[in-house]
Design a protein that fits this description.
Blueprint lengths: L17 H17 L4 H7 L4 H10 L8 E2 L2 E2 L3 H14 L1 H21 L2 H12 L5 E4 L15 E5 L2 E12 L6 E8 L2 E8 L5 E5 L11 E11 L12 H35 L1 E2 L2 E2 L4 H29 L5 H25 L11 H13 L4 H13 L6
Parallel strand pairs: 3-6
Antiparallel strand pairs: 1-2, 4-5, 5-9, 6-7, 8-9, 10-11
């Protein structure tokens, strides 16, 4: 029998407390019971069952789980990260839904909203009854959000918004959007309910990645909002960037789930596939691949746990998150690509999870800051010199 379990070869489970272990067990069971038997079909159809799954995720306390009050679970950062890992072991689209709901839609309302805004939106969002999205990226503004064209102007007591947002997870199905726009006083955040006149939500089709995820475009055409739709506590780019940092923290854990699922599928496959009279796992080249994958995932998980402990101690910086996001998404993608080779032709079949995770991770590498942007952030942190332009 193997001495090291593929799912946790360096026994990081032994470092978890009882609450963290309970989160891992509960989320892993949820994914097994409600996701794994269906996700290949969802991926092939380009579909995600938002209205069915959101209430279930809410019942488990997974939506905004790292926030306090208003129906939120108030868990530790590490528990949130571990939940993201287990969710993404099911599919990146599942973890993306939870990340967007909690870290990009609920977090800005929780941190920057008025008490009235928190009371109006957060309990329903925590329960999965209200779905949110985050509107920052634009058709011509991705890595450089300061160049956004969406703008808001005062008209009496109201705000009037014009512009568009692109590649918005949940954007086409959301009940409410947190939209960032340029004003005379700088960039501000606005709460835009679905159905507001002048606010259109469109579905983005023809994706080859994150297919089990809803993605939309938000169009604002003289969209009129009351004066109290603005988030009073957010001014400038620091508002949306702080939200992205929260989401990136979930990603640096989550990506490892996709990598782990690819790795364990490959280990199982080579242990049962016989060629030249012996299992593929008996070949030296196969074992070398397994060793490399084990090291990458183990190092990534140890890094994630360290950064999670820093966050719980209020010592985590955005530069730390950039290190984690860059390192762990790259490691997970390398593992998924290697796993794909180990399955041979079966590696491109949706009967196995590997190709689905591999193409999903191509998107994960890009969103919430591309690999290049995080490299520049790390370079600036080490040298003191900004090289973004």
């Amino acid at each position: 029998m193997p001495n090291l379990p593929a799912i946790d070869p360096i026994d990081l489970r032994s470092t978890l407390d009882d609450d963290e272990r309970a989160v891992v067990a509960a989320v892993r069971q949820l994914v097994k019971d409600q996701v794994l038997d269906h996700v290949e079909e969802w991926f092939e159809r380009g579909y995600f069952p938002v209205r069915e799954l959101a209430p279930e995720l809410g019942k488990m306390g997974l939506l905004g789980m790292h926030l306090d009050g208003y129906g939120c679970a108030g868990t530790s950062a590490v528990a949130y990260g571990l939940a993201c890992l287990e969710l993404e072991a099911g599919d990146s689209g599942l973890r993306s839904f939870v990340s967007v709901q909690g870290s990009l839609a609920m977090f800005p309302i929780h941190k920057y909203g008025s008490e009235e805004q928190r009371q109006q939106w957060l309990p329903g969002m925590a329960a999965g009854e209200i779905v949110g999205c985050f509107g920052l990226t634009e058709p011509d503004s991705g890595s450089d959000p300061a160049s956004m064209r969406t703008h808001a102007r005062r008209d009496g007591e109201d705000w009037v918004l014009n512009g568009s947002k692109m590649w918005i997870t949940n954007g086409n199905v959301a009940d409410v959007a947190v939209v960032w726009a340029r004003t005379e006083d700088g960039i501000r955040g606005f709460i835009v309910p679905a159905g507001t006149p002048g606010f259109e939500q469109r579905t983005i089709h023809h994706k080859m990645s994150l297919r089990a995820s809803e993605t939309g475009e938000l169009v604002l055409d003289n969209c009129r909002l009351p004066g109290d739709a603005m988030l009073p506590g957010a001014a400038g780019l620091s508002g949306p960037l702080s939200c992205l940092n929260e989401a990136r923290f979930g990603i640096l854990f989550g990506a490892l789930g996709a990598g782990r699922a690819s790795f364990t599928a490959a280990v199982d496959y080579v242990g049962n596939r016989t060629q030249f009279g012996k299992p593929l796992s008996a070949f030296q080249l196969t074992q070398h691949k397994i060793a490399e994958m084990t090291v990458k995932l183990s190092a990534g998980t140890a890094l994630a746990m360290h950064l999670g402990r820093l966050k719980d101690d209020h010592q985590l910086t955005s530069d730390h998150v950039s290190i984690g996001k860059l390192a762990n998404v790259r490691a997970a993608l390398d593992v998924a690509r290697t796993a794909r080779t180990m399955l041979g032709a079966n590696g491109i079949s949706l009967e196995y999870p590997v190709i689905r995770h591999m193409v999903n991770l191509e998107s994960v590498m890009t969103y919430e800051g591309t690999e290049e942007i995080h490299a520049l952030a790390i370079g600036r942190a080490i040298t003191g010199i900004a090289a973004f332009a």
